[in-house]
Amino acid sequence: MKTMLAIISNALCRMTGRNAGARVVVSRSFADFTPQATFDIKKCDLHRLEEGPPLKAELTRDQGLQYYRTMQTVRRMELKADQLYKQKIIRGFCHLYDGQEACAAGIEASINPTDHLITAYRAHGYTYTRGVSIKEILAELTGRKGGVAKGKGGSMHMYAPHFYGGNGIVGAQVPLGAGIALACQYQGNNQLCVTLYGDGAANQGQLFESFNMAALWKLPCIFICENNKYGMGTSVERASASIDYYKRGDFIPGIRVDGMDVLCVREATKFAADHCRSGKGPIVMELQTYRYHGHSMSDPGVSYRTREEIQEVRTKSDPISMLKERMLSNNMASVEEFKEIDVDIRKQVEEAAQFATSDPEPPLEDLCNHIFYNNPPLEVRGTNPWSKLKSVS
Amino acid sequence: NEQKGQKTPATVTVRDALNQAMDEELERDERVFLLGEEVAQYDGAYKVSRGLWKKYGDKRIIDTPISEMGFAGIAVGAAMAGLRPICEFMTFNFSMQAIDQVINSAAKTCYMSAGLQAVPIVFRGPNGASAGVAAQHSQCFAAWYAHCPGLKVVSPWNSEDAKGLLKSSIRDDNPVVFLENELLYGVPFEMSEEAQSKDFTIPIGKAKVERAGSHITLVSHSRYVGHCLDAAAVLAKEGIECEVINLRTIRPMDVESIEASVMKTNHLVTVEGGWPQFGVGAEICARIMEGSAFNYLDSPVTRVTGVDIPMPYAKILEDHSLPQIKDIIFSVKKTLNV
Q: How do beta strands A378-381 and A388-391 pair?
């Protein structure tokens, strides 16, 4: 029993990142916690499907703590970005993801790291779940050389293996995602591509071109509409003749999912992934979710919706609170444990912000680099004819 | 007189040269594939991809629906994920539907990602005026695409150009806009033994002196290289020796070759099919002015261009919308003040 406690203690220490031997178990021993529980999840609305995702989801203690940690990290990272933006340390565009964490966490929990993912500009959450560190994300936002794109890209242009950004042009990422899926099919590697877009982008023509080709060629592509009810300041009712985004794929089957419940998102994405991998072709998922911030940092977010609406979502549907309450009421973890995770995350985010504010900006020598890939150096014209700059790959 | 393993020079049309280039690159690298409207079962709207679908099948030669923005984006995504697509626009006029994918998704991505994400893609198709196809089907896009950092823009003239440059473009790890010319597809040119080899490539970014001369430099790209050579032949009879430079690549432009020529001849005429304002010739003028060759000019640079109008339909009007050989001859003489 003692050995087992030590093993579990060490495991938990690794997860929380603290030194072995520190006080991890608080008022109760591990043997008291429920290791696994089954939860009822909302039924998904189906389009052109006989069966949908299951109505129950299993959650282990470890998974729960991991999902909590992921979502809380994204939440705190985005709030830190808000702070830095207001201090004018982050400039330009900054589209925050707080409120939508269950989408990114749930999707990542159901696909493989070798699968592919592409999204639009509200991308910081996915950049994190796809493996980029908080440090590199914040430093990219502050435009420093330690940023994931060396400060050259900014908020909307962050990349990682099997993660294709971060795309600034509304809807353009959808054909790209279908193309990544084509590459998966072509290479026969059983991988798929998760292609995300918003309720605003759902009306872009290029989406329908992508749906057509993806269905025609049975591309392994999960098209996911993150419906947060507003495209900038235009509500879905004012933008779309049909707000049933899960049906907009027409001949492509669709599922409408509660995007505030990480378990619902996970089960639905698992279902969708199985559909794609079995060669049935693409599938559309609509995640009903909500953003607490305005469209971007230059939008207070209250001219087109009420503060009451925002507050109601916070109190009744917050994805992080929902998961926490589920775990607490099923005795899967303790309040203190969650507190410790919160403290640890705050510390990590603070350290990352420290780095992001102290790391130097990219050197001027880097100005013209990376125009081309794998290319001999070339000369680049500067602002005047005597300014001959150099570009290396 | 064929020796073992050697080929004699052959006469090959531009169409066949392009076809050979794609065939060889498809065979060489299984990541290469071709997509576009009618490229497979129709053998290509202009028969450039004739026989490729029969040889390589549905996986490598893909007929797309009429969805330029969609399939160009799909091609770019495939390139990001490790393939090497050749994306055909039936004509570059239709590329305007997809231009956001070419510029914002393809051209800028390597820079925005600080080198993390490459986009090895070729966008190819006929560019510029054809015959009788009127305003919406006759625009030259050389200047538009060559304006943008992150793209390479290639414009071949003859069969060797077509084959060598297309092979280089496909092997390049960056987005290349490859501007063909429909009127040249059926024109036969001699191809050297070297050019017939499967490893024959022409470097992107290097111009070629097609004809040496001492009195004046003519710089051109695509079909008008031929016009310049024809004009040079006529002028030679009057004792005026023109040096004709075939740009081959619009971006990056080989300004050094132009400058070296101008420092020899002291006179420069640019010839293009596109519109004059903000065009290829305008760029050459600016570059020459900013560089070492300016002091060698004995007269301002002259631009010969398409007329600044949408392309009309009636033959007589169409003929007068584009540079003719007599326009080049006239401009040369004006520039030389003879």
A: antiparallel
Q: Which residues of A touch B83 (CB under 8 A)?
A: 182-183, 186-187
Closest CA in chain A for residue B112: A153
Tell me what ipTM this predicted complex has. 0.96
Identify the structural domains of chain A with CATH numbers, from first to last.
36-362 (3.40.50.970), 364-392 (no CATH)
Do the Cβ atoms of B77 and A180 come within 8 Å? yes
Note whether A186 contacts B33, CB cutoff 8 Å: yes
Per residue of chain A (393 residues), give pLDDT as tens.
545 555 565 555 555 544 444 444 445 566 689 999 999 999 999 999 999 999 999 999 999 999 999 999 999 999 999 999 999 999 999 999 999 999 999 999 999 999 999 999 999 999 999 999 999 999 999 999 999 999 999 999 999 999 999 999 999 999 999 999 999 999 999 999 999 999 999 999 999 999 999 999 999 999 999 999 999 999 999 999 999 999 999 999 999 999 999 999 999 999 999 999 999 999 999 999 999 999 999 999 999 999 999 999 999 999 999 999 999 999 999 999 999 999 999 999 999 999 999 999 999 999 999 999 999 999 999 999 999 999 999
Q: Tally the C-alpha atoms within 13 A of residue A305's C-alpha that lie toward its C-beta.
A: 27
Structure tokens at A178: 């279908």
Which residue intervals of A87-165 are DSSP H helices?
101-110, 124-129, 134-141
Q: How far is B325 from chain A (nearest CA, A)?
A: 34
Cα–Cα distance, A380 to A369 (Å, whole number): 10
What single-letter amino acid sits at B304?
A: V
**Is B239 in CB contact (< 8 Å) with chain A?**
no
- CB-nearest partner of A183 from B72, B81, B290: B81
CA–CA gap between residue B132 and residue B134 (Å, rounded): 6
* Catalytic annotation, residues of B: 68, 137
Backbone angles phi, psi at B18, to 5 degrees: -65, -40
Mutation site, B61, B111, B172, interface A, largest A CB count within 10 A: B111
Interchain pair A375, B100: CB under 8 A:
no
Please answer whether residues A155 and A95 qualify as being in contact, where contact means their C-beta atoms are separated by less than 8 angstroms: yes
CB contact under 8 A, B111 and A182: no
Burial classification of residue B54, based on how many CB atoms lie within 10 Å of its CB (0-12 exposed, 13-18 middle, 19 or more buried): exposed
Q: Burial letters for B296-317: b for 16+ Cβ neighbours within 10 Å, e otherwise?
A: bbeeebbbbbbeeeebbeeeee
- At A289 the three-state DSSP class reads coil
Q: Which two tokens stand for residue B48?
A: 């450039």
User: How far is it, in rounded angstroms, from Cα B110 to Cα B113?
Assistant: 5
Strand-pairing partners, residue A285, are A224, A255
CA A377, distance to chain mean position in Å, is 36
Taking an 8 Å cut-off on Cβ atoms, the answer to whether A206 and B173 are in contact is no
Taking CA–CA distances from B108, the nearest residue in chain A reads A371
Min Cα separation B293/chain A (Å) = 14
Which residue in A has a C-alpha nearest to residue B107's C-alpha? A371
Exposed / middle / buried, residue B85 (Cβ in 10 Å: 0-12, 13-18, 19+): buried
